[in-house]
């Protein structure tokens, strides 16, 4: 399967229609259909059946797709790399971080890095952990920062710090005059916090169960920043990571959460792609920025 055929196949699998795939690839529908026919001729089997105006993948297509998608992602990363080289951006650091590190650790690391290496371009992306893992594996980024230090067979995972959990309250809330807040104080409150299948959610569930309770947020979140508008609107109170600079946001009050629960902060790199010198320097800056947060209670 040629690169263009691979591109068409993956986009058809994503979109499910010729119209949608053609629009995404910026080509005409007849041209896309022709590329698909040539691919099927070369392979010797059909990739799609037409059912009520939609393309339904055959069994063969479903089996091919995971590997095809991986190669397609790597081709995309290769194209972006060649564009960077064409524009002279060979001194380019590519990193992705989840929202809390992106708003706390990464800015401090970037300040130090830019002071020492002002000529190196830094491409910083914000993404959830699943996307960070995909980008590391495809080579789209070489550094990842996440609040999760689970071992990964194909990645090096280095724990560089921890973030404590805090309670966010609307201004004027009855608990705002408390020095700290725990599960007992939140028993009658609408709880906004992490899904139980996330790492912070599992840590919270274990802590509340140790006190004889049940962890059951009324509003479940993946990213701590999404709790901000809910708390501001008075929907409930939130238990989230303390890594974000919550004091910079109006309309909320932050209090320490007890018992103390600490979520790991990790730097992720690919075992298959050695870091360039500039990426290694950025990793050092990220380490120092994460370590600097530890005395603050995070």
Automatic annotation (TrEMBL):
The keyword Repeat does not apply. It holds the Pfam family HTH_1. It comes from the Bacteria. Keywords: DNA-binding, Transcription, Transcription regulation. InterPro entries: LysR_HTH_N (IPR000847), LysR_subst-bd (IPR005119), WH-like_DNA-bd_sf (IPR036388), WH_DNA-bd_sf (IPR036390). Residues 1-58 form the HTH lysR-type domain. Belongs to the LysR transcriptional regulatory family. This is LysR family transcriptional regulator. The lineage of its organism: Bacteria, Pseudomonadati, Pseudomonadota, Alphaproteobacteria, Rhodospirillales.
